Amino acid sequence: MSARGGGGGRWAAIYSGGMADRPRPSSEPAVRVRSAQVSDIEAILAIARSWAVEGRTEQELSHTGFLVSDFDAAAYHKLLTASRFAYVAEHDGRVVGFLIGYAGDQAEMMGDYTATKTAEKLGPFVVCKQIAVARPDANRGIGKILYRHLIAQLEPGQDLIAAVVDDPPNVRSQRMHRDLGFVPVFQIQHPDGRSRTVWRYSRSGG
Fold this sequence. Notes:
It contains 6 helices and 8 strands. It is of the alpha+beta class. An 8-stranded mixed β-sheet has the order 1-2-3-4-5-6-8-7, with helices on both faces. Helix 5 links the parallel strand 5 and strand 6. The longest helix has 10 residues. About 6% of the residues have low confidence.
């Protein structure tokens, strides 16, 4: 559930559901957020693999962001077909980012260890399983645009959580989540040997 690509400059947002982000200068390029489709898997896979851990130093991972879940096309197909919270961001017809989440009560079915453990501690929530932005488009606020779109879909009393890897610390992801109003609530030791901090966004502020 690591994330990156949220900080830096701001892009205008056009949501396919008719929702608008806060006003942006008209000179900024528009990013359209829409529901992800199976036909987007190739683009999603390419973006995700560009943030893989392999071949990168811990310092680079910590400060530029990374994904530890090494999903293949079949795994993304399962996620997209099961999720009510899967979106892509487009610019000029090109997928420049994606977010995949699902309701907490789906965690066990999805084989999500961290979310399953989180469900034992928290009330209703949506988990952001993965969020990533194409490397050439990072630092333009696209990750935050995707998150705000998801936040707008939350039901009353429903929180949003994300698990950020601590080893090595995903500093970029931590910063983005903090900027969006997430707060760290507890740590979980994952079977893969990497601890995660669960970050929680609550509209109630509790």
